[in-house]
Amino acid sequence: MRKQTFLYSTLEDLDLSMTFYSDPNDSSAKATLLYFHGGGLLYGTRDDLPELYCELLVESGYNLLTVDYPLAPEVKLPTIVTCLKEAIDWFLQNYQTTLGLKNSTYFLFGRSAGAFLTYLLSARYPQPEQKGLISFYGYYDLTNSAFSQPSSYYNQFPKIAPLTAQALIYPKPITEVSINERFSLYLSGRQFGNWLSYLVNSPSEKETFSLTDTELAKLPPAFLAHSSADQDVPVETSRIARTKLVNVTYEEIENLPHDFDGDISKPEGLQVYQNLIEWLDKTINTI
């Protein structure tokens, strides 16, 4: 498996990059997965997908393009979405010349907050080359009361006062920061019910960045995966999406944490990725 890094845009003086995972001996990949990482939009890094899954996807004929985006609260959602539109444009303009691909077929793939971005861009920036979306423990509705109320799960942990948490905010935009360094910002936001204030400019924007039933019904084929015991994003989110999307495959994993695929020693994660590849093959073959 080959890994290459490309610059797709800049924001102020911040580089926005991508990592391209591909098989150097095979340029005839079936499609490319554009991947957006999780982290509550406040932390994380584009290359957080375990190597095991990257290799499995590439060996199965799917390239992976993992994408930087500027994090909140240094920027807000409108800027994040604008940057990711640029990333999609970059792929469509460069798939042949820079990446050496024979086709521009792509899927959007996100985990957690990255899946939220996947839903959003699939609905608000649809392209004929996009053949589906993949949401692992994602959400599409910022008006969900679970996100604006103090979380009983996160309030089991020692309280982090908002002012203490806000000391972790950088003076300029950033694209990555480790969970160890900045999880406290997310934790405090969920403890006090003010996490969304880091993402949007005003309360009314929560609605602006939530998908309507009409938008959900128009989404391309979707593969959704969620754990029944998710302590972060309620599993009901994906259960409801399953009823509102027209063409959907849903995998529910029993009693594992939010990021059920994070622990590669557990077989459930690998099984879901194998099922995802079957779904990708089936979706590609029906085009």
Automatic annotation (TrEMBL):
MF terms (GO), sorted A to Z: hydrolase activity
Coiled-coil regions listed: none
Domain of life: Bacteria
Keyword Hydrolase in record: yes
Protein keywords: Hydrolase
InterPro entries on file: AB_hydrolase_3, AB_hydrolase_fold, GDXG_lipolytic_enzyme
SUPFAM superfamilies: alpha/beta-Hydrolases (SSF53474)
Pfam families: Abhydrolase_3
Domain Alpha/beta hydrolase fold-3 per the UniProt entry, residue ranges: 33-260
Protein name per its UniProtKB record: Alpha/beta hydrolase fold-3 domain-containing protein
